[in-house]
Specification:
With 366 residues, this protein is α/β, with parallel strands linked by helices. The protein has three domains: 163 residues, Spore Coat Polysaccharide Biosynthesis Protein SpsA, Chain A (Alpha-Beta Complex); 83 residues, Alpha Horseshoe (Serine Threonine Protein Phosphatase 5, Tetratricopeptide repeat), CATH 1.25.40; 99 residues, Serine Threonine Protein Phosphatase 5, Tetratricopeptide repeat, CATH 1.25.40. The chain is built from 15 helices and eight strands. It has an eight-stranded mixed sheet with strand order 3-2-1-4-7-6-8-5, sandwiched between helices. Helix 6 runs antiparallel to helix 7, helix 12 packs antiparallel against helix 13 and helix 13 packs antiparallel against helix 14. The protein is globular, with a radius of gyration of 23 Å.
C-alpha cells in the first residue's frame, strides 16, 4: 500500500508521554518514525512495541539535525512532525482524507493547543515530503523557509486543515529543561538575533530559574525588536506580555508598554486583559468594565488566533471582573447583568448569584 502520511518524532527519555502520543496517531498516520537521541529509559522499546520504526541518532545539540534524520527515513507523501508530549485528536476518516485532497497545497496548518487551559492557534505541522524542505536552527527549529521557497517556486500555497493537536508537556514547571535551553538559545540567538520568539523564550527560561533581571533584559530586547518589525509578526508582542506581567508583579503600572503592544497587535487579548486590570486598579472602573465585557463575550472554545491565550481571560471570570468594575462605578444595573452572564457561564455560580442579587437591590433602590 502507498504511504500517504508519515508521522515523525524525535525523543529522549519520553516513556511517560510517548505511548499516548503514538496511540493517538493510530488511524491517522500510515507510518510512524521515531528517532531516539539517547534515551536511558524505555522510550525506544515502547515505540517499537506500538509499531513505530525506531532509529537511533546521537544528540549533537541540534534539534534540526535530529528532525531531518527522521524525515530522511520517512516514506510518505506528507510529513506530520509531532513531539512525544503531544496528542492528535480523533478525526473522521473522511475529514482526514480531505486534508490531502488539495493538490496545490505544499503545507497545511493544524489547530494547535500549546497547553491545557489555553486557546488554539494555527501551527505549521504538515508538509509535503520534498528534499527542498528541511529544518533549520539548533533550537525552535523551523522548516518554514523551505516550505515558502517551494511554494514560490512551484506556485503552491499553505493551507489550513481540520487536524487538531494538544500539547501537554508544558503542564507544570519546566526546570528540568531550563539549563539545556539556555545554552541552545544563546547559540541560536547568535545565528538569528532578530527573532523575537527566541528572546521571549530566553526570558521565560530565566524567569523560571528565578533570574528576574536577566528575564527583564531579554524581554526588553524582544520589545525593541518588535518596534522595528514591519510588518508586525505573529510573535511580535510576546515580550510585551511577559515584561508587563513582570513589572506589574514589581508594583509598577506599565500602561505605556501595554498600549504600545496593543498598537502593534490589537488582537492580543492578554494585553487587553492586562490593560483592563491596570485601569481597574487606577479607579477607571467604567472603562475597565467595558473592556472586560468585550473579552467575556469571546468564546475561547472556538477562538483561533495567531496567539494562544489563557481561557480564564474570557467567559465567567471576565464577566465577573466586568461586574465588579461596574458595581464600583455605581452602575448597578450593568453589574447585575454582568453577574447574570457570569452565573450562566459556569464557575462560582452561587457567588455570582449572591452578587447579582446585591446589585439588583442597589439598582432598585436608585
Amino acid at each position: 500500500m502507498a504511504t500517504l502520511l508519515s508521522a515523525t518524532l524525535i525523543a529522549r527519555n519520553e516513556e511517560r508521554f510517548i505511548g499516548d502520543c503514538l496511540r493517538s496517531l493510530a488511524g491517522v498516520a500510515d507510518e510512524i518514525i521515531v528517532v531516539d537521541t539517547g534515551s536511558t529509559d524505555r522510550t525506544p522499546q515502547i515505540a517499537a512495541a506500538l509499531g513505530a520504526r525506531v532509529f537511533h541518532f546521537p544528540w549533537r545539540d541540534d534539534f534540526s539535525a535530529a528532525r531531518n534524520h527522521a524525515i530522511d527515513h520517512a516514506r510518505g507523501d506528507w510529513i506530520l512532525y509531532i513531539d512525544a508530549d503531544e496528542r492528535v485528536r480523533p478525526i473522521d476518516p473522511a475529514a482526514l482524507a480531505a486534508i490531502f485532497a488539495e493538490p496545490a497545497a505544499v503545507a497545511l496548518r493544524v489547530r494547535f493547543y500549546p497547553r491545557t487551559g489555553h486557546t488554539a492557534y494555527p501551527e505549521y505541522r504538515l508538509f509535503r515530503r520534498d528534499p527542498r524542505i528541511r529544518f533549520t536552527g539548533v533550537v525552535h527549529e523551523t522548516m518554514l523557509p523551505g516550505v515558502r521557497r517551494v511554494a514560490a517556486a512551484d506556485g503552491m500555497h499553505i493551507g489550513q486543515c481540520a487536524l487538531t493537536i494538544d500539547h501537554v508537556g508544558y503542564d507544570g514547571p519546566q526546570l528540568h529543561k531550563s539549563g539545556r535551553y539556555l545554552a541552545l538559545l544563546a547559540a541560536q540567538l547568535k545565528a538569528a538575533p532578530a527573532r523575537i520568539y527566541l528572546w521571549w523564550h530566553l526570558g521565560a527560561v530565566h524567569h523560571e530559574l528565578g533570574h528576574l533581571d536577566e528575564a527583564e533584559a531579554a524581554w526588553r530586547c524582544g520589545v525593541a525588536l518588535a518596534r522595528e518589525a514591519d510588518p508586525p509578526r505573529s510573535d511580535a508582542t510576546l515580550c510585551h506580555c511577559d515584561l508587563a506581567r513582570l513589572l506589574i508583579a514589581r508594583g509598577e503600572t506599565p500602561l505605556a508598554l501595554i498600549e504600545e503592544g496593543l498598537a502593534i497587535a490589537p488582537g492580543n487579548h492578554t494585553l487587553r486583559g492586562l490593560r483592563a486590570t491596570l485601569l481597574a486598579g487606577l479607579g477607571e472602573y467604567k472603562t475597565a468594565a467595558a473592556l472586560f465585557a468585550e473579552l467575556a463575550a469571546i468564546d475561547p472554545e472556538t477562538l483561533l488566533s495567531e496567539w494562544s491565550f489563557d481561557k480564564r481571560l474570557f467567559g465567567a471570570p471576565a464577566w465577573a471582573a466586568a461586574a465588579d468594575c461596574a458595581f464600583r462605578a455605581g452602575d448597578y444595573s450593568a453589574a447585575a447583568l454582568y453577574y447574570a452572564h457570569a452565573e450562566r457561564s459556569g464557575g462560582a455560580a452561587l457567588e455570582y448569584r449572591v452578587k447579582r442579587a446585591a446589585a439588583e437591590h442597589r439598582a432598585a433602590a436608585g
